Amino acid sequence: MVGDNVQPSLAGTYRLPTIVGRAAELAELGRLLDDQRVRLLTLTGTAGVGKSRLARAALSDKTFPGCLDAKVEVGDCTDRTAAWNAVLEAASYRPLAPAYQPLGPAEALAVLAARIGGGRAILLLDNCDRVVEQISTEVAWLLERCPQLVLVATSRVPFNLYRECVLCVRPLRTVFGAGDYLPGSSPGARLLLDSIDSHYRGSSALADRLVIDEIVCELGGVPLAIELAAGSIARVGPVRTLHRLEAGADLHSPSFVDVPERHRTMYGAVEWGLHGLAPELLDLMLRLSLYESMLDTEIACLAAGATEEEATARLGELVHRSLLDHVASGPSGHGYRLFAPVRAYCRRMLSADPVRATVIREDHVDRLCQLAETIGPLFDQHAHRGAALAAAGKRIVDFLAALHYLIETGQPERAVRLAAQLESAWIQHGYQAELESVLAKALEMSDRGTLAPGVTAPLCLEVLGLWAGRSGRLRRAVDLLSNAVAAYRRFDRPVDAARAAVPLAVALIAIGDHAAAAELLRIASRRAAELGGPWPMRIEMSKALLGFPVPPVRDAKTWTTMRDEVRQLDSTARLIGLNTLARTQIGPLTADRAQSLYRENLADDDVATHVLQTIIAVEGCALAYDAAGVEYAEYALTLMLAARRLRGAHGIPQLGPGDPAPRESEHRNAVGENKFRDIQRLAGEMSLTDVISYARTAPTLPDPDASPLAALTNRQREIAELVATGMTNRKIATQLGISEWTVVNHVRQVMSKLDCPSRLHVALVVERYAQPGPDGASKPEPVTDDLTQAALPQARITVMRRG
Q1: 192-230: per-residue pLDDT in tens?
Q2: How far is CA 783 from CA 56, 352, 469, 763, in A?
Q3: How far is the CA of 122 from the CAs of 55, 393, 643, in angstroms?
Q4: For residue 179, what pLDDT is reported?
């Protein structure tokens, strides 16, 4: 790498003009020049993309015997008179044309048409951007008068003629396909390395290929910018060049005397193409330059405050002028992106005019905040959640940039509210951990006495606490929400304190502090009417959670009632409610209930749009297996490790010390190290969809209330009950009208399903589950292989008496 203070010697330098990464374009140009139907071929593209070099290379590679061949630089011409005289002058230097005196445009055009006549001729009009609209109709006239004339033009704006063939020259690729990638191997990187070596001998050998890749990406693969960057790298090194580009610095050439003035700086090349640009288009371009995400008509409407029709027309004009790149099309509309040098030039314009920049940036952030206010409520509506998440996802980086801007400009309370409105989007698109860091920064600003501490600090603590609680970090949630409630009270905001007290109470219930939770809910109940909306119902449901004992027992009535109420909620609230209810059932006697609720969430149609609640449900299944015993260690470990990896992959913070988690070391000992490594490998390879499928198809935990007889078919149960009466296989066959051998097979199936080693055990199972319990249900005690000595004689007596 060239160090920042290295000044390579320029003595003995040389330059080898090369065209890199343009084989496909040159082949296409050659094919079009050979096609006799092509009379007008226009190469368009953004500033510095290499239109002229491609056109000249393509023409030099072709041989046209006996043709008039003229290459005309029109870039310095400001009107049609100068343009046609320049063409005529260039053509006059050929043997076929005598010298001439400057003429008016019509006369020059007539003389040129006479000189060409019906003979084969090829003219290159290079850089005719500024006169293309003035001469377009005259070009059509010339082509009609000269049937063998082929006209090649380079311009950022096409002629818009009916038979014009337009070839859009795109920037060089800055990445080199999929799979393994060798740094510095993309076409853009190769051009930069060749440009360094061709003029600054040997410097490319010292350049860090990874930094080179970052530079060409920052420049968007535009060849002129890349070649100008080569000079900067030779002077100050690649690292400082990259930092200067990121800071918005312009790129300058060594001022070669044969390079047009407009191509000696990158911004000069961009500015040259802005001639005649309407003020509203320039304003839209400046506003679009603030967006980091892909642009579309909706963003243009948002940025310009224009109707869809107006925004579409303006975007089309920017594309027409090669200032905006059309990068995607689909059912949902078109996608655009400002070319990298154009975007950098716009940001440089804003930096040079602080007043205008402040107005545009403030308006930009205000519009994003208004959009968030519109999208936010849709996240909790089943019918609109998917579309709302997609809309927020397209602009997620812009929302994040707006958050940083609000904090940096002393508006942390607006930043916190924006963050809270887009909670679902941050989580769904993998930004939760990053957003928590941003909010922590806002909290620090409030602690230092920045604007409105009474607003920012409590709200920030409340939002962070809510996110911690919903992501299963219960200890952190309790700490943050406790501080939020205390801060609201300190600033005499009792209603806000009551609101924050409700999720705090739920977190306290989850960690077993029912007394503190009850007191908080009692206080919140007094403010239920003032809170309004869904809060009275949330308070009542939170109170119901207090009714579940710890550890949980099989109180079917309370649990069933609560479950049915939660099922009536919509979308996000339902998933959160079921996960919360399931968490109260994690225990040896109720693990099957917890698993069934978690699996219900995993089977929900909305699960794809609720990444966090999906991961919580997966972790819940792991906890249910953990509570059921070490015989389920494999499943508990697999789900736990898979969920841990998914948290990292989706930007969701990991559980903290003291948060509910399976007993990893105990289960690891149970399965052994070899099996544990297999589990680790499997969990590391599973996608979210794979984990959901695994959790739903893993063994179902047994229901202690369920009778083992439920596993039998009707015929098998009938035979088991007859066995319990003491009947022999022959008597059973006679009574049921089937063969004795069929009875034998059924008895074997019954013994296998009930895990009974003898007919005596079958009889005991039937006897025990036939006797009603205190609540009218069958007794739940399972039969084990270790029958007591007291039970065996009683079973024999029963069978003998009934026999």
Answers
A1: 888 886 655 554 554 688 888 899 999 999 999 998 998
A2: 92, 85, 41, 11
A3: 12, 50, 67
A4: 59
Contact between 767 and 724 (Cβ < 8 Å): yes
Q: Which sign, positive or negative, has the C-alpha torsion 620, 624, 627, 629?
A: negative
Which stretch of DSSP H or E encloses residue 527?
Answer: none
250-257, long-range: CB within 8 Å, 24+ apart, which pairs? 250/348, 251/225, 252/228, 253/227, 253/228, 254/199
With 0-12 / 13-18 / 19 or more C-beta atoms within 10 angstroms meaning exposed / middle / buried, residue 623 is: buried
Is the Cβ–Cβ distance between 597 and 563 less than 8 Å? yes
Pairing label, strands 68-73, 121-126: parallel
Burial of residue 680 (number of CB atoms within 10 Å: 0-12, 13-18, 19+): middle
Instruction: Retrieve residue 716's tokens.
Output: 């098998």
Please, are residues 287 and 360 in contact by the beta-carbon 8 Å criterion? yes
Quick check: 582 and 627 in contact, CB under 8 A? no
For the stretch 318-351, pLDDT in tens is 999 999 998 877 666 688 999 999 999 999 999 9
Q: What average pLDDT score do residues 505-525 get?
A: 93
| Beta bridge pairs of residue 153 | 42, 125
Q: Over 91-116, what HEC string results?
A: HHCCCCCCCCCCCCHHHHHHHHHHHH
| 40 phi/psi in degrees, rounded to 5 | -130, 115
What's the Rg (C-alpha) of the chain? Answer: 38
- Structural domains of the chain, ranges and CATH numbers in brackets: 23-168 (3.40.50.300), 187-267 (no CATH), 556-697 (no CATH), 708-802 (1.10.10.10)
- Extract the tokens encoding 463: 């939002």
- CA–CA separation, 129 vs 44, rounded Å? 9
The CA distance from 108 to 116, in Å, is: 12
For residue 15, what pLDDT is reported? 52
Encoded tokens for 32: 């079009």
DSSP annotation of 72 reads E
Report the distance separating Cα 439 and Cα 424, nearest Å.
15
Instruction: Identify the CA nearest to 21 among candidates 197, 228, 196, 173.
Output: 173
Q: For 589-641, how does the pLDDT look when each residue is reduced to its tens digit (9 = 90+)? A: 899 999 999 999 999 888 889 999 999 999 999 999 999 888 899 999 999 99
Cβ–Cβ < 8 Å for 785, 796: no
Report d(CA 247, CA 714) in Å as an integer. Answer: 78
